Amino acid sequence: MKSFFKFCYDAGIIPSNPASQLSSIQVKADEANNVRPFEPKEYKAILAAIAKTELQPRNKARTKACIQLQRWSGLSIVDAVCLSKDELQQTGKAFRVRTQRRKTGTHINNVIPSWLGKELLKVKNGNPTYFFISGEATTKGAVSTVDKMYRQVFKKAGVDGTSHLFRHTFSVELLKAGVDIRKVSRALGHSSVTITERYYAKWNKAQQDILDGDLTRAWK
């Protein structure tokens, strides 16, 4: 409509443009349909592709550790890249990530596989405070550098993906295993379970099983 009235005004058909002050309509995408976890074969291909890239050996190790950190902790790329060494806590053979989301400030306290904790401790970074930030760039620059390395890996693996799909994979695999969505919401550091449901409701197996049971019992 705005284009039509602009055409009419420019052509001299009408003396003024009645649509000139109208703002553009913002079409909001269906957020749930934009959620896509990596398939197991895709994730396996991504890990295998790291060694085939032209990255330096140290960066290959950093990239692999960061990818696995996202997959098994649910951290976003900025929270993973900015993870400090004192935010990885070890008790005996158990490891956990205790941090705050940069985006919302909400607290995250997630256990991770012990093998991943050991792999993070082996990352060669040269920085006494962080696992992935070298100290030679800003936080934004460090995240951008890791993201570029990710893209090389995705291309080599032949997988269409972004860093955020590791977070989706973490969430969806938990829900498919029957973990309550409220617990998944806490693990993700969402400020409300409503946010988690907006994105992941269709994978919520635990609540669907409860609903199925309630419906079945009601029939009797």
Number of helices: 10
Q: Return the CATH class of the domain at 37-176.
A: Mainly Alpha
Which regions are unreliable across 5 or more consecutive residues at pLDDT < 50?
Answer: none
Look up the CATH topology of the domain at 37-176: hpI Integrase, Chain A
Round the mean pLDDT to the nearest integer and report it: 88
Write the CATH homologous superfamily of the domain at 37-176. Answer: Intergrase catalytic core
**Helical coverage, percent range:** 40-55%
- The value of Rg in angstroms is 23 Å
Q: Major sheet, described briefly?
A: 3 strands, antiparallel
Instruction: Output the structural class.
Output: mainly alpha
Q: Outline, from the CA principal axes? A: extended
Q: What spatial order of strands do you see in the largest sheet?
A: 1-2-3
Question: At CATH's second level, what is the architecture of the domain at 37-176?
Answer: Orthogonal Bundle
Number of β-strand runs: 3
Q: Please write the string of helix (H) and strand (E) elements.
A: HHHHEEEHHHHHH
Strand content of the residues, in percent? 5-15%
Taking the alpha carbons of the first and last residues, their distance comes to 56 Å
What's this, in brief?
The protein is mainly α. About 50% of the residues lie in helices and about 10% in strands.
